[in-house]
Amino acid sequence: MYTFNKNKFLEYYNQVYAEIPKVEKIAKEISKNNISEIYMLGCGGAFTKFMSIKDYLHHKLHIPVIVTDPEEFLLKDFNHLTDDPMFLVGTKTGVTTELLKTVKAIKQKGYRVYGFIGDKDTPLEKYLNGCIRSYNTDVHIILLDVLVLNLLENMGFNVGYDRFKIEMKDFGKDLVETISSNLDKGE
Hints:
Blueprint: H1 6-18, H2 20-31, E1 37-41, H3 44-61, E2 65-68, H4 70-76, E3 85-91, H5 97-108, E4 112-117, E5 130-133, H6 141-154, H7 161-169, H8 171-181, H9 183-186
Parallel strand pairs: 1-2, 1-3, 3-4, 4-5
Helix pairs in contact: 1-8, 2-6, 3-6, 4-5, 6-7
């Protein structure tokens, strides 16, 4: 049976929210570069979360945005890259063999790779241009949204990033209240 620990939930949420300045710094760094295409690489949950933002990015930037798993990328896309691709990767553990192999190959070609990692001190981190700590998950959806919205704002799009950031400050508490008020119904 699922048990909801509101204190642990808020602890993770507060850690995620504290990561926002680092994500903003990474978004600013990315926005200074040309981006000809974006690849988002991950398996399972990371893949699903990247899919949630793919169409939005494509709509705003009018460049190819490809979500794929690491092995498929190496087989299908690796030898057809443009001059300025950007890579986002996601993993809970930072030790996924396929992802490590792929990121090493990407870095050997000199491309930029930014990643979301749930665990600390992982082998993958040393290959990243920027690492975003996801705290107990592969890609924290709020931090992915922070990265994308802040990146777009830095590129001149008005997507309401400042309002989003303010609303996220108390969102964890709001979620705890909503979940807590529905636990009986859920059981």
